[in-house]
Every structure is written in structure tokens, then in C-alpha cells.
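Lecture 7 notes: from sequence to structure.
We start with the chain below.
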Amino acid sequence: MAVTDLTAAPTPGSGAPGVLRRTVRAPQARVGLAVLALVVLAAVLGPVLSRWDPFTSDVTAFGRPPTALHWFGTDSSGRDLFVRTLVGLRTSLAVGLVAGPLSTLVAAVVGAVGGYLGGRVDRVVVWGIDLALVLPSFYLLVLLAPTAGRAGWFAVALAIALLGWMVMARLVRAQARSLRRRDFVTAARFLGVPTGAVLRRHVLPHLASLLVVDATLGVAAAVLTEATLGWVGLGLGPPAVSLGTLLAAGSASAVTRPWLFWFPAGLLVVTVLATSLVGDALRDALDPTTGTAGE
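Predicted C-alpha cells for the same chain:
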């Protein structure tokens, strides 16, 4: 057998085109992608096209319900809730799109290095993961959130990402330990392929399905976490606007002036649900044990 045959890693799954085709074919993925496309377009273009500024008051409309002029109504300061909700949605999406993939990246690097190298490095990695898991992540997030909130949405995203990678790192480590005993990995190692190249070419590609699903679902989880922090008053500081800060501002008026709460809440639910639908479809397409994978 040729050397190239030994070091050639078997192709995981049927490749990205096949996975993408199976994902798009799933009804829940089509619905999720269509809704997400609308949500992203609204978040990006809505504030630009709107005639209202999210921070400017309409002195003729304080606390007004939805009208033809103010589609989502106004708050007690006369600010248009439609444009503020879209700006908040853009901020929450930015937090999710940074925190979800970043958390997965940290988990992939830590888990793959520990699982592949083994020995002392693996013991240190396991010790670090276990220590991080023992620490109450949510309470740490609550402690960090006020400082991160004052620093901006990127700091909030970093805090969420750095406290949410541990469980996935354990899964990646277990998979990497299994892969390091496979023939193509052993052959590459004995032929002197550098460790970084082995991880990059032969280990991580086989974990792609796990990582892609985790990153996708991580976006929804991060959006939800940011909203939760904002709702309890620990999110972004003023004048920043996010779905969480809007929920916090509108929760006290959820009965008397419901438009202040239910429009941001509804948009949050739609965004998280659409992202979850896409993540579930990706998982089904990538997992060969599901019934839809082979279709």
C-alpha cells in the first residue's frame, strides 16, 4: 500500500455539498433559514430605512400603542419601539454570532489537543475542564456581566463564550482520543507529520459535524443568555439597546402597555426558534444514525 494511502484520512460523511443538500431538503431547515433571512434583513436594513432614530423622542407620542406612524408603538420617552427593537435585535444577533462560534472554537482546540496528545497534557486539560465545570458558570456570568455590559456587546459575547465551552470540550476530547488510534492518524504520526498538521488535516475534519451543530445551536443559546442577562438588569448598559434591555424596560408594563414587552419577546422567540430549527436540521443531516441522513 502506498504511503499516501496510509495517511489519507477517510472522508467524513459525504462531504459538505451532500450535507448542505440534505440540510436544505429538510422542511424545518427551509422554514428556519427563511425566517432567519428575514430576521437578519430586518435587523440590518430596518434601522437604516426607518424614518425614526432609536434614541430620538417623538414629543407628540409618549407611550402610544401601535399606530400607522409607530408600528410597534412608543415608549414612555416617545422613542419608536419598532426601530429600537430592530437595533436591539441586531445587537443580540451580534452577541450570538460571536459567542456561539467562539465557544465552539475554544472547545475544539482544548478538547482536540488534550485528546490527541494524551499523557500529561491530557491530564491538565481534563483538570482544567473539570475545574471550569465545577465553577457555577451562571453565577460567574452574573458577576462578570455588569463590567462586560459597560464595555460593550463584544465583551458580553466574550464572557458568554468563555463560560460555555466545557461540555463540548469533553465531547471533542473523547472523539479525539478515539481518532488518535485510527490507522491514518497513526501513519501520519510515524511519518513525521507535525502535530498541528495532524490535528488540522486528520482529526478536526472528523469532528466537523459535531462542531458545526454546536456552533449553530450556540448562537441561539448565546442570544437567549444575553436576553436573560438584560432582563434581570445585568446586560448592556445604556445607551446600548438589545432585546434583553428592551425586555427589562418593558416587563414592568407587560400588562398595562403590552407592546413594550411582547414585540421584543416575540422577536426573541422567533429568532431562537428559527436558529434551533436550522441546528436540528444540520444535526440530522450530519448524523448517519438518523433516518434522514441517508435520504
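Points to note: The chain has a mean pLDDT of 84. The radius of gyration is 23 Å.
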